[in-house]
Amino acid sequence: MPVMAGYFPIAMTFGILADTAGISAVDGIFISLFLYAGASQFMAVSMVASGMSMVGIILAVFFMNFRHFIMSASVRAKLKKTSSKYFPIIGFYLTDETYSVISMNEDIDDHKYLITLELLCHASWVGGTAAGYMFGLFIPSIITESMGIALYALLLTLLIPSCKKSIKALVVALASGMVNALLLQLTMFDPGACFIISVLCIASIATLLSNEDDKSLVGEDKEVG
Amino acid sequence: MNIKMLTLGMMIVTMFPRILPFYVFDAEKSPKKVKTFLSFIPFTVLGALILPGGLTGVSGNVFVSTFCLLVTGLVAWWKGGIIIPIVAAVCTAVLMNFIDIV
Question: Residue A89's closest CA among A115, A126, A62?
């Protein structure tokens, strides 16, 4: 439910943007239905609008979404009872947001729970896109602009409960975010690559330090920042 | 451009990294270090998803976006839940944008 609430406004924003980029409602909903990937959908729309070639766009999306490799691997590690016949469905619907909810939940080894959650999120995403096409013109821009924060607010609220339990979670997340910001500043790599490098580097450092006490982890954060 | 063809192309390159790991990794057999490593992934993923993108969440305005994230964090910390912090964030953004216009 909460993810659906977070998804709907973002999907509406996508519908509105795709509409202004000259993508028909049928095509826009088609994208949400089959691609179902938040950031890369926005990226794809802006690339279509800028007249990039189809191959170029597909390649960019590939690099962008390669990060899901890490997320899927991390979900896989938690599934022990779940039958492998459900893996393609669970994997197909694994987005940044569903991953965030799933990974913050201890008890996920149940395909019924996972697939229900994922399908509801997808429905909200597709419904939001359609709503964006239908009502986009009637919503004042002050509200649509403010909606942009909803997705980040959602991700943050998923992170906070773990931070309350252990400062480690906050430090690791902050370090990863700062490295990502730094790499993006350098503009040497593609945004997808920056994301992967940050996630893997900080998780590796945290793993190496996890045999020691928590203080060393905090020290590392200062070094990175 | 044919958007449907483009979408199918994008879908295939997105499905590959989403589904493949489920068959490549075996949770039972992976060593302890790998498990520890994977246990950190959710937090590093969330961190890199929020920063720096979140700082420009409200139409590129760093001040408003940062303030909204702080409000979200505080509400989530004290009140818990998910919907209330998100509503708080969006309301803060609307309010700040409104004040800005006036």
Answer: A115
Note which residues in 192-221 of chain A have CB less than 8 A from chain B.
195, 198-200, 202-204, 206-207, 210
Task: State the pTM of this model.
Answer: 0.78
Min Cα distance B95 → chain A (Å) is 9
Nearest to A54 among B6, B52, B65 (CB): B6
Cis before B42? omega within 30: no
* Gap between the Cα atoms of A129 and A30, Å rounded: 10
- Tell me the domain boundaries of chain B: 3-101
A15-54 residue pLDDT tens: 988 887 889 999 999 999 999 987 788 878 877 877 778 8
Question: Given CB atoms, is A89 within the 8 Å cutoff of chain B?
Answer: no
* Tens digit of each residue's pLDDT (9 = 90 or more) over A62-110: 877 888 888 898 888 888 888 888 999 999 999 888 888 888 887 788 8
